[in-house]
């Protein structure tokens, strides 16, 4: 293969981070940090190659597109923001779009990662630094040996497993943090001193985060199902249990997010019910006091008539009216108190 110096220079400047490259042979790292333009050369030598690009543009991806003969549609999806999580099959390779969630201070951030999977190459395209590449490389180094039986048959599949496992673990971690947020919200629901507006804001934010997390994790089941299909031929018999484990984790994330959504909805219903009960208590007390206040109003109104009546223009009339007011008011107060209306 002849290397175009201009192409190599352009490739060395791809993305916000310098491109990362690595090549394996028989499960051992044979080369690392080589130019992007040499990818096809290493593949031609029978090595398995990994290339990582961070925040590349369309022109930047043109280099790797030529190296691996990628379809323009797939390249367009790789640089387009907010693509849905999916797996597309092209002639000779697969394209995956994944999301790595991160929760900090109750705020959910989604980091998009696109992946090209060929027979001898794995290309990761990141929109930002949300996916920790060093952690991914550690998983490859500490995980199943690529030279082992089964892994050596499809080393790219073993690399893809490490990536999917890292992504799904991040989704599990995000679900756990949102679960903790739901637990805190549950405690605040019954705290009458905590402002209702703050509870409503946190509830809305939590529901929004759960909806966003569910939107990017739910398609993972279909992605893993497709990868595990025998007609695809990507996952060897030895790798099947590893992929099945990742699939089980995706089911757990989906069930977790669904359960949390139901929990938040129940918490909001509980809060509304508590507010309704509280309002009923207030109205009951206000009504009871209004009834007590109505007694002196009625008595004084009666004695305010300008016609003669027993005790008219006499001190005894004032005494009688005052006694009636006190007795009736105290009587009503005791009755309401006994019935827990006050």
TrEMBL record:
Keywords, ordered alphabetically: Cell membrane, Membrane, Transmembrane, Transmembrane helix, Transport
Subcellular location: Cell membrane
Family matches, as Gene3D superfamilies: CorA soluble domain-like, Magnesium transport protein CorA, transmembrane region
InterPro entries, A to Z: CorA_cytoplasmic_dom, CorA_TM1_TM2, MgTranspt_CorA/ZnTranspt_ZntB
Membrane topology field: Multi-pass membrane protein
Cross-referenced Pfam families: CorA
CDD domains per the UniProt record, alphabetical: TmCorA-like
Primary localization: membrane
Residue ranges crossing the lipid bilayer per the database entry: 286-304, 316-336
Coiled coil regions in record: none
Similarity field: Belongs to the CorA metal ion transporter (MIT) (TC 1.A.35) family.
The protein, known as: Magnesium transporter CorA family protein
């Amino acid at each position: 293969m002849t290397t175009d110096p201009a192409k190599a220079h352009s490739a060395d400047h791809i993305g916000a981070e310098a491109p990362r490259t690595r090549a394996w042979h028989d499960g051992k790292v044979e080369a690392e940090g080589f130019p992007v333009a040499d990818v096809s050369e290493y593949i031609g030598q029978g090595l398995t190659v990994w290339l990582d690009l961070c925040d590349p543009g369309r022109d930047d991806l043109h280099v790797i597109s030529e190296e691996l003969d990628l379809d323009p549609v797939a390249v367009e999806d790789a640089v387009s923001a907010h693509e849905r999580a999916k797996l597309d099959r092209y002639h000779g390779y697969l394209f995956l779009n994944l999301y790595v969630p991160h929760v900090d201070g109750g705020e959910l951030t989604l980091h998009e990662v696109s992946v090209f999977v060929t027979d001898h190459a794995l290309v990761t395209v990141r929109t930002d630094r949300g996916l920790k590449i060093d952690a991914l490389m550690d998983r490859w180094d500490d995980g199943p040996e690529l030279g082992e039986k089964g892994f050596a048959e499809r080393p790219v599949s073993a690399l893809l497993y490490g990536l999917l496992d890292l992504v799904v673990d991040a989704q599990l971690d995000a679900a756990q943090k949102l679960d903790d947020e739901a637990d805190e919200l549950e405690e605040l629901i019954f705290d009458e001193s905590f402002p209702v507006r703050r509870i409503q804001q946190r509830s809305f934010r939590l529901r929004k985060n759960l909806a966003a997390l569910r939107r990017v994790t739910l398609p993972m089941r279909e992605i893993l199902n497709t990868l595990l299909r025998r007609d695809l031929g990507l996952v060897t018999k030895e790798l099947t249990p590893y992929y099945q484990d990742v699939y089980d984790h995706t089911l757990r994330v989906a069930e977790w997010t669904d359960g949390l959504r139901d929990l938040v909805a129940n918490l909001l219903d509980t809060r509304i019910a508590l507010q309704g009960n509280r309002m009923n208590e207030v109205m009951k007390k206000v009504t009871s006091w209004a009834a007590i206040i109505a007694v002196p109003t009625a008595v004084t109104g009666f004695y305010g008539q300008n016609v003669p009546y027993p005790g008219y223009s006499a001190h005894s009339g004032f005494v009688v009216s005052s006694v009636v007011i006190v007795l009736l008011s105290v009587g009503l107060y005791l009755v309401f108190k006994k019935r827990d209306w006050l």
